[in-house]
UniProtKB/TrEMBL annotation:
The protein's name in its UniProt record: Uncharacterized protein
Taxonomic path: Eukaryota, Sar, Stramenopiles, Oomycota, Peronosporomycetes
Protein origin, superkingdom: Eukaryota
Organism listed in the record: Phytophthora nicotianae P1569
């Protein structure tokens, strides 16, 4: 999403009905990962607009390394259709975990309710 920060790219998204803007990724928070998947699903219908966007960013500092992320064209960062399907499937799977973590963080939850939630999760997801 960081590559979509330029004024022209944001304008292109707005022009086609997408009001989302880039946000920083907080990898240490579960909810940050889930929200990032949700935001990708919101942007996904507009990704075709950037098929021809082959240029690298212009605001690269002079001392930036040759492997700097800003040197990569946006078109190279768009996932393939099969990867987009995997992302959609992952979002469907993680929705249940988002609901569960929301319930576990409530102030009025009892130990018995927590135990019931954990039992359900263990039954549904054998690999945990």
């Amino acid at each position: 999403m960081r590559k979509l920060k330029t004024v022209k790219r944001i304008a292109k998204l707005k022009q086609n009905g997408c009001d989302l803007k880039p946000v920083p990724f907080h990898e240490f928070h579960w909810s940050g990962c889930y929200k990032m998947l949700q935001r990708f699903e919101g942007v996904r219908p507009s990704l075709h607009l950037f098929r021809d966007d082959c240029g690298a960013d212009r605001d690269i500092p002079a001392g930036a390394s040759p492997t700097d992320f800003r040197r990569v064209a946006l078109v190279d960062l768009i996932p393939s259709v099969s990867k987009q399907r995997k992302i959609a499937a992952l979002l469907d799977e993680t929705t249940a975990f988002d609901v569960i973590t929301g319930k576990l963080q409530r102030d009025d939850i009892t130990v018995a309710a927590v135990r019931d939630i954990f039992d359900i999760v263990l039954d549904d997801y054998d690999g945990i």
